[in-house]
Amino acid sequence: MSDIGSEEFDEDEGINLGSYEGDRNAEEERHGFGKATLPNGDTYEGQYEHGKRHGNGTYRFKNGAKYVGEYSKAKKHGQGTFWYPDGSRYEGDWVEDKRNGHGIYYYINGDTYEGNWYEHLRHGQGTYTYSSTGTKYIGTWINGKREGSGELVHANHRYIGNFAEDFPKGLGKYKFDMGCEQHGEYVLEEQIQEGDTEEDEQITIITPKWKCSRITEIENAVYN
């Protein structure tokens, strides 16, 4: 769903902007603190500057979503928290209505991601925690996918290596708490899955396959 609020600052054009109660400046623009109900049913309570949402405020969407945080020239900009209708939540930086910078996303299945964002996508360094297993991915993201160097941290071992297109790929190693390392590489294997009927398109399934090359012992193998 869109998390961009409705516009409400074209009074000179004679557009119905809904109801408003609050401060105005000498030009009769919404300026200062105010409360507004927009024509689409959304509401906003907070600071205005020259007719635009600017400063701290709370925007409630009629579908149940809510944003509490900073605005600049009617766009979410700065620090803010967004509650989505499906129950997920984002806390962190915004730039011109998009998740940009550092933030934490709480997903409806219990997973969390904390790290860098760009244009609404996980991008840069970050940690994704899988709620069902407790496994963590710590590493690099590009356009929402695991890409580059990273670690998969499990309960009693971890994998350290490279990732590509969200899969482990290339050289890497497993470190086990019992005191050994397993070196090798991941190779991506493609398998074509036929559709149920002639009209259905073929589906390409990519599966990472681990190929071990050697095993070594390590000392003081304790990982937190």
Folded structure, characterized:
Helices cover 0% and strands 63% of the residues. Strand 8 and strand 9 (112-118) form a beta hairpin. The protein has strands spanning 19-24, 30-37, 43-49, 52-60, 66-72, 75-83, 89-95, 98-106, 112-118, 121-129, 136-142, 145-153, 157-164, 167-176, 180-193, 203-217. It is mostly beta strands and 224 residues long. The mean pLDDT is 90. It holds the Pfam family MORN.
List keywords for this structure.
16 strands, 16-stranded antiparallel sheet, mainly beta, 224 residues, Radial spoke head 1 homolog, cilium
Helix content class: under 10%
Shape: elongated
N-to-C SSE series? EEEEEEEEEEEEEEEE
Give unreliable regions as ranges: none
Query: Strand sequence of the main sheet, in spatial order?
Result: 1-2-3-4-5-6-7-8-9-10-11-12-13-14-15-16
Distance between termini?
38 Å
| C-alpha Rg (nearest Å) | 24 Å
Number of strands: 16
Estimate what percentage of residues fall within beta strands. over 45%
What is the residue-mean pLDDT, rounded to a whole number? 90
Q: Structural class, judged by helices and strands?
A: mainly beta
Largest sheet: 16 strands, antiparallel
Number of helices: 0
What's the short story on this structure?
This protein is an all-beta fold and 224 residues long. Helix content is 0%, strand content 63%.
